[in-house]
Amino acid sequence: MSHSAPPATRDGRTDPARILPLFRRALLDHWRSTLAWAVGLAAAILVYLPLFPSLGNSDEMQDMINALPPEMTRALNYDQIASGPGYTQATIFGLIGFLLLTIASVSWGASAVAGDEESGQLELTLAHAVTRPQVVLERTLAIAVRTVALAAVVFILVLLLNEPAELGIQTQDLFGATVLFGGLALLSGMAALFVGAVSGRRLYGLAAGAGVAVLSYVSNAVGRQSPDLQWLLNLSPYHWAYGNSPVANGADWGAAAWLWGISAALAGLSAVALQRRDVGI
Amino acid sequence: MGQVIEVKGLRKSFGRRDVLHGIDFGVERGEVFGVIGPNGAGKTTTMRCLLDIIRPSAGSIRILGENPGAAGPKLRRKIGYLPGELFLEQRITGRRLLAHYAAISGAVRPGRADELAERFNLDLDRHTRKLSKGNKQKLGLVQAFMHDPEVLILDEPTSGLDPLMQQEFRALLREAQQRGQTIFLSSHVLSEVQQAADRVAILRDGDIVQVSSVSALREGAHRQIRIAVTGVPGPELELLLRDVPGLHTIEVQTAGELTEISATHEGAIRPLIRALAPLQLADLVIEEPDLEESVLTLYGNGGNDGTGGTGAASAAGASGRRGDVAGPRGFSERSRS
Is A160 touching B (CB cutoff 8 A)? Predict the structure, then answer.
């Protein structure tokens, strides 16, 4: 044969650029958006937490909370807002941080397969020497790494503000809460990835991811209203993660395992789903 | 010589829409094989099946003796692919994008990407999404060629390229061919395929209408001819040329001394020249055989009824694909005497 095939010694293992190439590309493609989300999370933390000594840690605050309808307090998880850990749990982990990290994760999940496919770029990637599960799993790994990085930003900033803002949070409790926080956001992101991988439509992925997050939040808020509705809590990943206020009381590691485990399972199912269908039609 | 690409009874339907109705073709090693047809004929679908981007509904595909669906990355490493619609919207430079594609394809000889980019006059340090359509296309071509794959599958490779770059592309094709690389390309512009390919498959509505060599296609094609003669009246000239095989007179005009005949001609050229030699020629125009016209005949709507260009135009107009076939015709060789 006159054509020279690539020498066998130059494949795979020897060249460092060939180790997880899609993972590297995904990280590089998204570093700007990751940075932007980190800035957003940092801004939220820097706005909320320094307010605690003057706001949460006072009798007036407790009186105000007591004056609110108890349903509302329960829905917003403001029951323990007068304590430093309770305040951090309710404002950062339970609300604004949850919102931001979930949106980030869902948008990444929906774009990893379906968004790339809709923009026409997935076709060219798949025409190269990669397998579809490899594409899905390397990109999932990149989403997980970015999510962990953002959760780490939250962990570090809260830790830094712990003393000055008189929060009184135990480091190991903060760590546990951060693991749950990351897993909870990743779960919605993986739902977005999965539906995107099945349907090839980014919008469906976004809807699924947002749906999981919203239903999870709402069923927690409603389930806390009365003992008759408590069964709703079992359906709420939000409640699995935050039911026992982990910033104050430490993580429920079983719940953490569920959140991360279901996320991993959804990633695996996404790989199978993409493997089984036509791309880019 | 084994066939590098072997397609048998390939069918593909999306839901209830049948796109390919069981097509068969084979591409020999070192061959440039073109598939032409209007948009929607199934060219892109065929190529996507070859790369396992979509899966056939029925039939078999062998590339280098392997089934793309089962062989996976090992096989695709030996294929270079240019998609028909290229989307490069990342915020990275061409160089980094190529490095990424190099990392997920066959080994790229150092400096090869730069060499190709230079040939195409492409700046690799610009962000890909800021590139013009033509420059994106060049980047796509570099990406397909850079690992010197055994098989090249190119969907509308010259779309967006200016004539100079199209020429460079054809030079690249010939080099690849000489190196024993096999090329499967598509186009809806016949002139593109006729200049680049050895054989052509004509695809229409999911069926291969005909596979033929470009030279065979050319033989069956009609040349447009215009002959202007002084000193011979129209009817006499017609009589003189009546027995030239393959010549069909369309129109005779007389203006004073000058008689002008428009005609079409197919087959051997020598009898025509011999018949014209004794005449007082004022002008002679023989256009390159119009393959588009003969292909249009194969597309179905008549067209070669001796009326030449008008027939082709009406055929194209009637089927609504005028824009598809009436692309740039490259250089139209005219011989004037």
Answer: no
CA atoms of A159 and A163, how far apart (whole Å) = 8
Please report whether residue A113 resides in a domain. yes
- Which residues touch B289 (CB under 8 Å, ≥6 apart)? B218, B221, B222, B223, B266
Percent of chain B scoring above 70 in pLDDT: 85
Q: DSSP string of B230-260?
A: ESS-HHHHHHHHTTSTTEEEEEEEEETTEEE
Residue B10 has pLDDT above 90, yes or no: yes
Classify residue A140: in a domain, yes or no.
Answer: yes
For A46, other C-beta atoms within 10 Å of its C-beta total 12
Whether B106 and A129 lie within 8 Å, measured CB to CB: yes
Supply the range of the domain harboring residue A131. 40-275
Which chain B residue shows the shortest CA-CA distance from A21?
A: B103
pLDDT for B67-83, tens place per residue? 999 999 999 999 999 99
pLDDT band at B332 (very low <50, low <70, confident <90, very high): very low
Contact of B269 with B322, CB cutoff 8 Å: no
Backbone Cα Rg of chain B: 23
* Token pair in block for residue B220: 């069956």
Closest CA to B298 of B179, B216, B225: B216
Helix or strand run (H / E) with residue B80: strand B79-82
Report the domain count for chain A: 1
Interface test with B, best of A128, A276, A279 (most B CBs within 10 A): A128
Phi, psi of A230 (to 5 degrees): -60, -25
Question: Across all residues in chain B, what is the average pLDDT?
Answer: 83
Interface check for B77 against chain A (CB to CB < 8 A): the answer is: yes
Hey, is the C-beta of A281 within 8 angstroms of any chain B C-beta? yes
Domains, chain B, ordered by start: 3-218 (3.40.50.300), 220-337 (3.30.70.980)
Is A100 domain-assigned? Answer: yes
Q: Which of residues 4-33 of A touch B (CB under 8 A)?
A: 4-7, 10-11, 15, 17-18, 21-22, 25, 28-29, 32
Name the B residues in 156-185 with CB < 8 Å from any A CB.
179-181
* Residue A33 falls inside a structural domain: no
Inter-chain contact A129–B87, Cβ cutoff 8 Å? no
DSSP B93: B
The model's confidence at residue A4, banded by pLDDT at 50, 70 and 90, is very low
* Cα distance between residue B135 and residue B120, in whole Å: 9
Chain-chain contact of B147 with A17 (C-beta, under 8 angstroms)? no
Give the ipTM. Answer: 0.86
Residue A131 with chain B: CB contacts under 8 Å: 72-73
Q: What is the DSSP string of B273-337?
A: HHHHTTS-EEEEEEPPPBHHHHHHHHHTS---SS-THHHHHHHHHHHT-HHHH---------B--
* Cα angle: A259, vertex A262, A266; to 5 degrees: 135
**Angle between the N-to-C axes of helices A202-223 and A171-199, in degrees from 0 to 180, rounded to the nearest 10:** 140
Q: Give the model confidence (pLDDT) of B265-313 as tens digits.
A: 887 888 888 888 888 899 999 887 666 666 666 665 433 333 333 333 3
Tell me, yes or no, if B306 comes closer than 8 A to chain A by beta carbon.
no
